[in-house]
Every structure is written in structure tokens, then in C-alpha cells.
Design goal:
Elements lengths: L2 H13 L13 E6 L2 E7 L8 H12 L7 E6 L11 H8 L3 E6 L9 H8 L3 E4 L3 H7 L1 H9 L3 E8 L19 H12 L3 E5 H7 L17 E5 L10 H4 L5 E5 L12 E5 L8 H10 L4 E6 L1 H10 L4 E6 L14 H5 L4 E8 L2 E7 L1
């Protein structure tokens, strides 16, 4: 492995420290090298906090180390605009760094090559595209939104050993996945800016759709989205009563919202009986939602899959057999027949989890 790739791998590793906390900003890592040694490290830890380059420079200053003539390895092109913090390009310039190695260029319109151009204009030595594919993969939801103005869509489904997603209709809903699988689900939720279900799931399961476990820091909790064309959602359900996160109801006409609590918003984006998936994603994209987790139920999964707009999927099959003989079924055929390919298998407790992408 080349020296530049080795240092970029370490920048990628340290970027992970900001996982779950930086949205809607991307994960970014930076290591600064001088005379063949890493002398400082930084990452974007939380929204509103220092950018990776700024943290690395501060790290060197705290150690009393001069950065004159050093090389910065950064997983994403440095910004050249004022936002919550000053431009990172200026910070690099003031620090005395002479060479910058970049993993991926930033497709965000506020940057889009501007950082690279500024560095070249100021006579930095610049190398671009080192481990570009890995860098883009780490910040894939950010990259996807910048290029498509729609969220990256992940579908999450769980079934019993026979492919059933629920038991008999006259019995209460029952969780059948292992604790290890449940932990993975909450990590998926934490990786998402919004979580979507159909109204039937709300009526049957009364979910909260909140994140338990991962630390989100100061970022906003994932928005709960319910596809509910005909206003069937129970007024006393947890999504309507629990204000731990915002709830968006997607409907096909305007219904009375006078009794709604402040965290609930009703959005009409289509007057059709079945609201088009593409319009749902456009609406969320316009709100700068970069990642969407589709949690159910079966009708919602199928509609999203048939739209061709699902990017990734996670299917958990438990070894438990649900009671009764009724209940809907779902299996991997729905995924493969709609353009997704299995790429990884994980055994969690007694569950078999398969991961899919396009």
C-alpha cells in the first residue's frame, strides 16, 4: 500500500468518531504528517463543532508542534466558505501546511471544487482522489443527496423463520428478533435522518420510532414519517403524542389539524389514492433529508421496491416461528426481483441478517 493511502486510511478511521452525531454534515477525518510521522489528528465530531482540519490544527497547537511544511490528509475537500465555522482552506493556509492530500471532492454546491481551486491558487501542493471510493462510501448519504437531491433509501425488514412478518391478526404484535438485531436496528435509525412507515404499521404496532442506544449529540433526532393518505392514524398513538422527535404525516388532502401537537406536521404532496414514492422522496430531499430508513409494513416495502428507488436493504430472519397460520410474508425474492443484490451475511444471536445494495 502506498504511503498516501496508508495515511488516508487512518483519516477514514478517525472520521468514524463522528458517526451518528454530525448529520446533516458528512463524516470527515484529517491526519497531519510531518517528516514521516502523524503529528496531529482531527475529525468532525458534531454539527456546529470544529471541522476535521480545524480540530487537527488545534491538536497540533495544544501539543506545541509547528505545522510549517506539514502535509494534511483529509477525506473530503476542504470548504472555502463561511458557515457555522470559518473556511478550512484559510485555516490550512494560516497553519503553514504546504501539501494537502484529498480523498473525495465535495459535490455540495457551496463547495464544489472551490476548496481545491483556492488551495492551488495559494500554491499548496495538492493531490486528489486518494482512496476516493472508500471516502465516498463513508459519506454516501451526503454524496447521494448532493447529487440527486433525494435521500439515500434503506429498507429494513424482519421475519420469522417462515418469512412471516406478524402472527395471527387476533393476537398483539410481538417482537421476535434478537437483542443483537435490535441493537443493529437502532444503529440504522441513528444513521438515518428520517424513518418512514405506513399507517397500518402505526395502527397495529404503535411504534415510537426513536433511537435508543447510539449517542446523537446535539443533532436532531430522526424525523418520523407516516404515509397516511386518508387520515387513519390514531390521534392518541405514540407518534402523535410523543414529541421526542418531529412527525410528518403524508396525506392526499388537507385534514383538520387543530388538535395536533407542535411536533406534528401534515404534508399534502399528491391527491392520488396511493402517493407516489418519487414525490415522497422529492419532498424529503427538499427538506435536506439525506438518508431515509423504510421500516414497514409489507405494502410500504413493496411500493418502495417497485419504484426502483431503494438503494440498500437489511433483511433479518429469526429462527423463531410465530403463532397461528395467518399473517403476511416477505422474503429475499422481493429484494432480488427489484434490482438489489446480497453482499453480506451477518449472524446476530440466533438471527440471520443479510445486507443488500444495488
Amino acid at each position: 500500500m502506498e504511503e498516501d493511502e496508508n495515511y488516508m486510511l487512518q483519516a477514514l478511521e478517525i472520521a468514524q468518531k463522528g458517526r451518528w452525531r454530525v448529520m446533516p454534515n458528512p463524516l470527515v477525518g484529517c491526519v497531519i504528517v510531518k517528516e514521516g510521522e502523524i503529528i496531529a489528528k482531527g475529525w468532525h465530531d458534531h454539527i456546529g463543532g470544529l471541522h476535521a482540519e480545524q480540530m487537527a490544527i488545534a491538536d497540533a497547537e495544544d501539543k506545541g508542534i509547528s505545522l510549517q511544511g506539514a502535509t494534511a490528509y483529509i477525506t473530503l475537500e476542504p470548504c472555502n466558505h463561511f458557515g457555522r465555522t470559518p473556511p478550512c482552506t484559510e485555516a490550512l493556509l494560516w497553519a503553514g501546511i504546504k501539501k494537502v492530500v484529498i480523498g473525495a471532492l465535495d459535490p455540495n454546491p457551496t463547495v464544489r471544487g472551490g476548496g481545491l481551486e483556492m488551495l492551488q491558487k495559494e500554491d499548496f501542493k495538492v493531490k486528489n482522489g486518494v482512496l476516493e471510493e472508500l471516502c465516498e462510501e463513508q459519506m454516501e448519504s451526503f454524496m447521494h443527496w448532493c447529487r440527486n437531491r433525494r435521500p439515500l433509501v434503506t429498507l429494513k425488514a424482519a421475519t420469522d423463520i417462515n418469512g412471516r412478518i406478524d402472527g395471527a391478526k387476533d393476537k398483539p404484535a410481538k417482537r421476535f428478533s434478537s437483542d443483537e438485531s435490535l441493537k443493529l436496528v437502532h444503529e440504522l435509525r441513528a444513521d438515518s435522518m428520517a424513518i418512514l412507515v405506513g399507517v397500518n404499521t402505526v395502527i397495529r404496532d404503535d411504534p415510537e420510532l426513536t433511537v435508543r442506544g447510539p449517542e446523537l449529540g446535539p443533532r436532531e433526532a430522526p424525523i418520523r414519517v407516516v404515509v397516511d393518505p386518508n387520515n387513519r392514524i390514531p390521534s392518541n398513538c405514540k407518534l402523535m403524542e410523543n414529541g421526542k422527535a418531529r412527525t410528518i404525516l403524508i396525506q392526499n388532502k388537507y385534514f383538520d389539524s387543530k388538535e395536533d401537537k407542535g411536533h406534528v406536521e401534515r404534508v399534502v404532496i399528491s391527491e392520488n389514492k396511493e402517493i407516489e414514492v418519487s414525490k415522497i422522496l422529492d419532498m424529503l430531499g427538499d427538506r435536506k433529508i439525506q438518508s431515509l430508513l423504510v421500516e414497514g409494513g409489507k405494502d410500504t416495502w413493496v411500493r418502495f421496491l417497485e419504484s426502483g428507488l431503494v438503494d440498500k436493504a437489511q433483511l433479518c430472519v429469526s429462527n423463531i416461528e410465530l403463532e397461528g397460520e395467518s399473517g403476511e410474508k416477505f422474503d429475499s425474492n422481493y429484494l432480488s426481483e427489484n434490482g438489489l443484490k446480497e453482499y453480506k451475511i451477518i449472524n446476530l444471536g440466533k438471527d440471520n441478517v443479510t445486507l443488500w445494495n444495488k
